[in-house]
Amino acid sequence: MATVVLRNLCKSYTSGQDAVKNVNLEIADKEFLVLVGPSGCGKSTTLRMVAGLEDITSGEILIDNQIVNDVPAKNRDIAMVFQNYALYPHMTVYENMAFALKLRKYPHREIERRVQDAAEILGLGNPTMLKRKPKELSGGERQRVAVGRAIVRKPKVFLFDEPLSNLDAKLRVQMRMELQKLHTRLQSTMIYVTHDQVEALTLGDRIVVMNKGSVQQVADPVMLYENPVNQFVAGFIGSPPMNFLRGRIAGQNADYYFQDRGIKLRLLPQHTAHMARFRDKEVILGIRPEDIYDKIFAQDARPEFTITATVDVVEPMGAEIYLYLNAGNNNFVARVTNQDTATINQDLQVVFDMSKAHFFDSETQIAIF
Ligand SMILES: Nc1ncnc2c1ncn2[C@@H]1O[C@H](COP(=O)(O)OP(=O)(O)O)[C@@H](O)[C@H]1O
Ligand SMILES: [Mg+2]
């Protein structure tokens, strides 16, 4: 059993800025929770406070319902894996993995068994591998040793701080799958920090999106993708990012349109109740690139969901094509099939799937519904 609770957690460095602002989170036993957000948003600071490597300015951290604010790092029964691996260069793979157990005076037999088990799990079991020094390892192997060092301790909670950021793209995808398997196998509580939203979506049972020290939204991957609570989350999750078009709500008698120069899109009945108070006001329409279609492939689409856009750039991506489009004051991207034949400078009829549209208050950036 290992639950982790953060209550009103704050951190201000002496330089005066607030790195973490009033974070509240409850991490369930065996959960894989991912903290994601841009560089500098307070992810590492949060994780380091959980580990006991950083003082807490205010608030509480509970592990298994015990307040641990004043418990030193070594007594928290937590293992942390860092981006830079932090291996001891003069020790072999075996010694690196065994080190924490030796410090804690585990019997020799037990150390050997645990290191061997961890090495097997991570594909490092080969005796010649265990005798190598970190400089004789590839990036991926070093990362495995760093994870192995955490596993041998059988901690209550694993903390990962961008553990895959130093690996090349292919290895990152492979290690991502291995970490998933590891979680299934160990059934431990894991808190994982990354700036990479793809990594967050693929790994997390639940994802915490942070910005400027504050939690923006906590949700499972699908919820986060489909129901972002504000423009920050909407723009951060998804690639290419959600398009944001500026316009205003026009119309009457519950017959409303989103309008701007060169754009007129009818709102659906489910929008109208929410949008009435924004009549004649500016709003932001959010729509993902995959929810905009070339009219050629959406023949039966109604004209009130169709606009004419100029094709600025055509970017073939293999299975699909990204079309960079312009209509009046707004630029946006459509993700279309590779069968699409649109060309640069062409005036293209594009259809918006308005059932997938999001609307944000242009002043607060908060989702309107
Ligand atoms: N030791 C420190 N002293 C002063 N400011 C720090 C220190 N560590 C981090 N910060 C600042 O706190 C903020 C959050 O940093 P960090 O938690 O490392 O962000 P992230 O891991 O999300 O990139 C940043 O503005 C960073 O500059
Ligand atoms: Mg960091």
Number of helices: 10
Number of strands: 20
Distance between the termini: 38 Å
Provide the gyration radius in Å.
25 Å
CATH C-level name of the largest domain: Alpha Beta
Total count of domains: 2
- Proportion in helices: 25-40%
Provide the CATH superfamily of the largest domain. P-loop containing nucleotide triphosphate hydrolases
- Would you list the SSEs in sequence order as H and E? EEEHEEEHHHHEHEHEEHHEEEHEEEEEEE
Shape: elongated
What structural category characterises the helix and strand content? alpha+beta
Ligands: adenosine-5'-diphosphate, magnesium ion
**Estimated share of beta-strand residues:** 25-35%
- What is the CATH topology descriptor of the largest domain? Rossmann fold
Widest sheet, order of strands: 6-7-8-3-9-10
- What's the pLDDT, averaged over the residues? 95
Write the SSE topology:
Elements: E1 4-12, E2 18-27, E3 32-36, H1 43-51, E4 58-63, E5 66-67, E6 78-81, H2 93-103, H3 108-121, H4 127-130, H5 139-151, E7 157-161, H6 169-186, E8 189-194, H7 197-203, E9 206-211, E10 214-219, H8 221-226, H9 231-236, E11 243-252, E12 255-260, E13 263-266, H10 269-275, E14 282-287, E15 292-294, E16 306-316, E17 320-327, E18 330-337, E19 347-352, E20 358-361
Parallel strand pairs: 3-8, 3-9, 6-7, 7-8
Antiparallel strand pairs: 1-2, 1-4, 4-5, 9-10, 11-12, 11-14, 12-13, 14-20, 15-19, 16-17, 16-19, 17-18
This protein binds adenosine-5'-diphosphate (ADP) and magnesium ion.
